[in-house]
Structure prediction request, 1166 residues.
Amino acid sequence: MSAEDTLLYLDGVSVSFDGFRALNNLSLTMMPGEMRAIIGPNGAGKTTMMDVITGKTRPDHGTILFEGETDLTKLREAGIANLGIGRKFQRPTVFEPHTVWDNLELALKAPRRPLNTLTYAIGRDDRTRIEEILDITRLSPKRDRLAGSLSHGEKQWLEIGMLLAQDPKLLLVDEPVAGMTDAETEQTARLLCDIAGKHSVIVVEHDMSFVRALGVKVTVLAEGSVLAEGSLDSVSANQQVIDVYLGR
Amino acid sequence: MLTRFFLMGLDRKAGLVLTVLALLAVLVPVMTLVVPEGSPWHLSIFSVSLLGKYLCFALLALALDLVWGYVGILSLGHAAFFALGGYAMGMYLMRQIGPRGVYGNPILPDFMVFLNWKELPWYWLGFDHFAFAALMVLVVPGALAFAFGWFAFRSRVTGVYLSIITQALTFALLLAFFRNDMGFGGNNGLTDFKEILGYDIQAPGTRVGLFLATVAALALSYMIASGIIASKLGKVLVAIRDTESRVRFLGYDTESYKLFAWTLSACMAGVAGALYVPQVGIINPSEFAPASSIEAVIWVAVGGRGTLAGAILGAVLVNFGKSYFTGALPELWLFALGGLFVLVTLFLPKGLLGLWAQLTARLPSGKGKRVPNGKTADQKGM
Amino acid sequence: MRRAFRWLLAACVAIATTSAALAADLRPLVQTMGSGGYAGTEKALNQLSEAGDPAAVPVIEALQAGDLYVRKADGLVVIARKAGAGFALTDPLSGAVVGEAAAGAIDKIKINNALRRSISATLGALTLMSPDPATRRSAAEAVFKSRDANALDALNTAIAKEKDERIRRVMEQARAAVILTAGASEVDTQAAIATLTARGDRDALALLSMIAASGATDALKTAAAGAVAAVEQKLMFWGALQNLWYGLSLGSVLLLAAIGLAVTFGVMGVINMAHGEMVMIGAYTTFLVQQGLRTYAPGLTDLSILLALPAAFLVSGGVGVIIERSVIRWLYGRPLETLLATWGLSLALQQAVRSLFGPTNREVSAPSWMSGAFELGGLTITYGRLWIVVFAFAVFAALLVALKRTWFGLSIRAVTQNRPMANAMGIRTARVDALTFGLGSGIAGLAGVALSQIDNVSPNLGQSYIIDSFMVVVFGGVGNLWGTLVGALALGSLNKFLEPYAGAVLGKILVLIFIILFIQRRPRGLFALKGRAVEA
Prediction:
């Protein structure tokens, strides 16, 4: 496949830490507007893949292109984020000493340079947008609470809200429902599906019922490369995948 | 726009600090110059300069708190910026001595004549103009901080490593300024000043004037700092302090934010040094000693890291204690200072202002915001 | 016992009588020195020279120094040295006290330039023929330095008589130096150039360059120029080797100071700013041990350093354990707070030592087996430095073995890698923490024993090492003992190689700047741990 029409294009990406190959010749493509679930056993390289895409880790070799032209391996985290790639971490990381509102204000799409933020005064559009997101994430009543005082689930939602405020072209979501109740999980699935209409989303998740609820194409990673791709049903029928998950 | 910026930072605490400073600005001149000497309300010139010295330290503490309290950069080299500002001012004051030096050379300061130097080194040129010297007070520490920070932040040197290399920086400067051939008076530094802006530096009026300038510099720096902290930029800084990588993934170039705060802080420290030198009458290389930088850190810690008022309070209290101890019980001062370091870090992680906040929050009416755990960037293990 | 004493007494008497007998022959000659003005003195000098008795050396030396006088009352020639208001008089030959005299009661035997020359020639001749090899050798060296043409004849005689090959070589070099300075036939000069090239030190180089610049003939000039090049190359080689040795020596001092820090900072991640004070405490323990031995067991003073080693390890280690239990354990995971608290401790410890022992330096003397030096090719190596190098490497090796091969080392590694797991396995993590910190501090104490030999034992001893130690550990890579070793040696050598060009202070500044820049390029040091574990 050529890289031109893709939103994200990974080809032959390898990373090793002290001899351990976290990613081994990984290739993957995402089309604009696509939503993809990534599953795989522990140590399959899911988080490392996100690190490589977002610039946290530099690949030893391989190509990573965004929108078919921008070489992500040359950029640093902030530059990649500003291209329109947002990331939600496995462990929810929000700015604990700031209020929920301030967290969203910081994430909100706006010029990012120090001079811009020094002179920033919130306008009506921004205010409306933050209020919208507060509604979507059901955090409106807690807008003035410090983020550090939120419950685990609320922090997850706040982080998803921050992703929305960032308005990225591609969202990388690492285990969004870890530690959530079933009801919350369901809501999150619905929320992600809503987002997927306007944005491309990569979801890494262990929870199979959640992946099933998403109902999207699944990529199975194992030992740092792609093992299988397709619908959840087809990959779960794949003998290799069964071997990897259940052990030989 | 500028007014909005300053107003943004004006909360109750800021109001209190500015009121105290304004009171000082009125009371001190009156008590020194108007109240007659016999009166119990009279303030001696010595006390004015001592107070001025404390406020210079308070300004240094404020600068340090801006980077440590709000961005999480523990600088063990801020005294270097302070001293550089001081040397810039000292050079101006040296040039003002003119032919009144021991050797009577109208151009060369005494120590250069002593070293048999024939002409002024190029880096001394221009320091006979106050405006140039005042500019250098900001530019020299600022430029050093910018260069240092540019390298350090871009290569992601953080936490303890950064602290240690800031200490190495000030140590290197200490060694350099001790050298006679650096042209800054070596061991003895710069001293024997006569005049500033044409006024006799020993005259009570000049002393009071210098004190007022210090109060003004502190008030202005306070307003700038609190304005920054209240702005969105300040929120980004605090976010960087606690979870820098998360801020990067939001698309903020955290290096330039840190560089901005770091450089600004160095400039403030430089101003503090520049105001300090004419009031104490000397600047020498010992100001660069790593110990002075670490002492400044403890002022901030005592008052309350991450609160601007706390930094000022801590600097004044600790230095008042130092003046008292070194006079009355010199043997005990280092024990007291050492003990202060240990006690504050063990029992008062948020300093005196944090203690005050905790005490008031315990009161039944305290329905204010819950104070989050004191989780800071430096907690992210080594 | 008694017999031994009697025997000794007899020996003394015998020595005294022989020297008295010798002196008896010289005495009339010495007496004539004071009469007849310059010419008389010169004549007496020549006769002394001909007598060839080294016993005359002190007399001539006194003459040279202007200490030889004639007592006006009886014309006795004496050595007079200022004592109080007047002069103390001693006999020039036997050194026995003669009495005292007022300044007016004695006359100085004056010397002029011509006399001065023949004095040094006579001295050279007498000492060159001395029965004591060390005296002959130093006399030859003295002639080499003075290049006094008057000594040429004496040198030639001495060379002919000399049995010791090494001393003869020095004499030949001295003769070559004299020949080159005074000028001689082309053949002799060529031979002299060859001799000096073989000597090949800075003095030889200076002489040879002189000939290369202003030799009598072109052939001589080219020969000398070639010799200069050869000597310069040789000097450069040995100079580089000497620098390497200095670097190794400084490096092992840095290693000693840093190695304990490599345990507390590198392995445990504790920023101990009081580390330098642990070194200082080790040095003071050495001082106390030495004092104790001097008072109670003077015979063992030479062993005080060895006895101080375990003592310093225990004292510093004990202080370390107390610090860990009382302060540091509350601050785990908060490195910046640890830094501040331990800085506070370091201030208090310094003041405590200052209050107990006073602010001045304390004297720790070197045992006999650590003083002196030996030559190795063109290198001069002092025993003290050599032992410190050996000691530093021994401590390093011991620590390495302790961490890699013992149960305690295994526990340390287990606790640093995975604390909860270690705890679950039944390792008492709190105790391991305390002991690890004690180990690091104890090693600092050992460093203190070594540093007491080369540095001033004062309350500020530790402060001068703390920044260097941190630089070494950070430069080498935190958590890597080998990194500390390489870091210490590299920084030590860099410092010593910069020193000749930049001077000591500037060299140190340059090293600091180098480290600052280096850390910015490689924030985790030379031998960084990689991988996700680091980021966590």
Q: What stands out?
A: The longest helix of chain B spans residues 45-71. Chain B has a mean pLDDT of 89. The beta strands of chain B are 190-191, 195-196, 199-200, 282-283. Chain B touches chain A through 31 residues (CB under 8 Å).
